Amino acid sequence: MDMKRMRMAPLLIALLCISPIAAEQSLDTRIQDLRQEILHLNRELFMLEEDLLFPANTQVAVFLSMDVGEFFALDSVELKLNDRVVTRYLYTPREVDALLRGGVQQLYLGNLRSGSHELVAVFTGKGPHDRDYRRATSLNFEKGIGAQFVELKISDRVSRQQPEFLVREWD
């Protein structure tokens, strides 16, 4: 019996040494799995929250894009819906650069009832010859059933050497 115990002792010692390492790895694996599940649940909750807060049948989204930018350096945008300011945004040089390279910014996401609405966007920045520039553009639109998407676009009108501020509905 003693000889059998002596032969088993190294095996028991090895198992006792390996066991905490295996338990630690198992715990790390379980923690990583839980983190992944939490991230997945968080993503699902965010999407559910957006669906509840902004149902597709009342949703209105306004996007901003820029084309070229030789005649206008954007500083800020103020957005009004039905004479109520819904957003004001002050741009950093890095954000303007991203827009000039083809980026599109979601300026506003909200709910509107069906019917007639007016959207007014006021752009502030530096115009031609480095002068302060403040320009507004507006859109009267009919909100129907379903999501409504509007694009504000700043582009250069080379023929007049002036910036042009366009607003259009996406289909």
Characterization of the model:
This protein is of the alpha+beta class. It has two domains: 53 residues; 112 residues, Immunoglobulin-like (Sandwich), CATH 2.60.40. The protein is 35% helix and 44% strand. It contains two helices and eight strands, in the order H-E-E-E-H-E-E-E-E-E. The strands form two sheets. It has a four-stranded mixed beta sheet with strand order 4-1-7-8. Strands 3-2-5-6 form a four-stranded antiparallel beta sheet, with no helix packed on it. The radius of gyration is 29 Å and the shape is flat. The termini are far apart.
For this entry, give a set of tags.
single chain, about 170 residues, alpha+beta, four-stranded mixed β-sheet, 2 helices, about 35% helix, flat
Would you spell out the secondary-structure blueprint of this structure?
Blueprint: H1 2-53, E1 59-67, E2 73-81, E3 84-90, H2 93-100, E4 104-111, E5 115-126, E6 132-143, E7 148-157, E8 162-170
Parallel strand pairs: 1-7
Antiparallel strand pairs: 1-4, 2-3, 2-5, 5-6, 7-8
Distance between the termini: 86 Å
**pLDDT < 50 stretches:** none
Q: What is the quaternary state of this protein? A: single chain
Domain tally: 2
Give the percentage of residues in beta strands: 35-45%
Helix content: 25-40%
Gross CATH architecture of the largest domain: Sandwich
**Outline type:** flat
Top-tier CATH class of the largest domain:
Mainly Beta
Structural class by secondary-structure content:
alpha+beta
Sheet with most strands: strand arrangement? 4-1-7-8
Overall pLDDT confidence? 83
Task: Say how many strands there are.
Answer: 8
